[in-house]
């Protein structure tokens, strides 16, 4: 980052040196104009020189303040480009010095319950005597078997034979096959607790999810039957930790499950099966609970708890109830469906912009905040009749810019939000001390805080417009309240 900052600074200095020749030409033109005025009207030229000499200290002071403002903007430009280059290199690097989130947009598909049945199928084929004689090879008829088709993978038993009849040769195949009949769940309760994490170094935001679910289904037959429960592992979830599957109070290990997440067992007539599933993982941006098919839902209860504002995918199920704490904290989204038929999914998307894009907005707003401070601080001083020297103003602007720069540097060590807040507070404090601090009774603390808070509005996740509007209206009212020349004239 330091090397990038030096490279950008050298480029900026070269750009300033390129402006030296035009500035020298402007000064030469002004000198020639003053010389021409002396030749035409010596007295007016003398008064002009005297006026310039009288106002020279004040003009030079404001010129120095303008230079300090330009230096502050230059520092912010160098900082913005250096931070952007660091994040770009970090995102495209092959190796990293910290762990990356191992999950993405997680999709948990609803499980399936089925009734395993065995059915017997019989097929016969009659070959006339002349055909049977023609296809017989070495007096063996079993050479015909490959041409009569092969059974499927679910075959439990297979019997084949040839029988000679007066009509010809009759081939008979009897197959015992296993089939599955889908069962509806009597009740499905799903809980997902999502907690977002802001990693240090400008890495992408992710959430840690704790998933818990319980399902109940039953044997619909009046005789004992074999039931099967299949729980699909979530997609886009990365590594699952603490995965447990409990059936009727018995916890099953991975070696007890067919294919890792399938249970099969005998259930008495009318008996019910209770299944509990739990696991934890990491994800980002979105979480979905996908119904596997259009089915009749007797009782479905899905609850998602998240500590970040959520949106919902178009044409997905909208929550039946939402709870947002007034004092902040995790919000609760709930979907309750009873006796419904649907193929829509529960799909929640969280507001999460690119870290690089967010930092670019913040750093561009910091330059605007310094210019705003250059306007508000003199206006505050005029309305309060407080003396303000140009050099003090320029130093305060440079201090504010240095605080913003510190926030950009801290993003390499701290999460994005606390790093930028610390930088803004440091810049406001440094500018406040330069302007007089506790020694000055009417220090423009409010304009400083408003300018320092301006870039932070872009870290609120979509509420920047509202915050900036409220901030501008508040400052306008405070400034106009102390502008004595705008007070209504007394009758």
From TrEMBL:
Coiled coil: none annotated. The keyword Transmembrane helix applies. Keywords: Membrane, Transmembrane, Transmembrane helix. The chain crosses the membrane at residues 20-40, 61-79, 364-383, 390-410, 416-435, 456-481. It comes from the Bacteria. The keyword Membrane applies. This is Permease. It comes from Deinococcus daejeonensis. The lineage of its organism: Bacteria, Thermotogati, Deinococcota, Deinococci, Deinococcales.
